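okkk here we go again. third time trying to get the manganese (II) ion bound version out, last two times i messed up the smiles copy paste (missing a bracket lol). double checked this time i swear
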Amino acid sequence: MARTLILSDLHLGLPEVPCGRPARTPDSLAPLLNNCDHLVLNGDIADVHNVHRRENGMALLDQLLGMIGRAGILLTRVNGNHDFDASQKNFVDLYGGVVFVTHGHAFGASMLPWTPAHRVVRETLRAARARNDKTLEGDLAAAGEAAMAQWSEARSHNEPTALISIGLNPWRVARVLAWWRTFPREAARYAERFRPEAQIVVCGHSHRAGIWSIASAQSAAPKRVLNTGGFTFPSSPHAVVIDDDARELLVQMRAIRARRGRYELAAESPVSCWRIQRPAASSR
Ligand SMILES: [Mn+2]
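finally!!
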């Protein structure tokens, strides 16, 4: 049996908020990698485009990648909007397309509705979408271009932590809450458009962990949206764990808890565990 683990939104380089959680370091994250054969880092792993966070973020990322390599774990990196790199993957289809994994910044018309860079990002996304072909690859390339527009805005580099900047501004709180309500539906719609065969959509980006089952217009089976949340306060980090054997996939959403200064998977829960018949001839 092989295990795939999917994590997102570590935001390495973003200063720690004194909230009692362990600092996000390779050492504190190491227990998550126990028994893992394939790790998917699903975007916003390090804040490499923010001028104030880049140096620390890159150093921590290098250490994390070194640890993953030494452990012999197969690694798949997927771009987020904080670590977009045109030469890297923007999505991954697992198990013959049953599981679709992407960060989530491309799901809607606006990837950051609460930020000062909101307008420029939205307008760049609209223009880039008009220029790119109507494929998943084209759409995610447009989203990458729009993500980078945030970092051409000087204000984006001087934002305090998300918690402070959002918490002090009621308008922003309202924008985030409204966006959180629509995000899972947008995720399901996006998958229906580009990956209709996917049963499970794994994303992050919104920093709101959760499980949503959303009816599909095209098939009898709903799309299950699993959002792995984020590691920065106040979001709650989660992992998607997929164990596969010859006949079936066991997909679980697991909370991540802090214990003795390190992060580890919380206990299994039967309500966030699904068995899926393994597609014939699929590979991980
Ligand atoms: Mn993001």
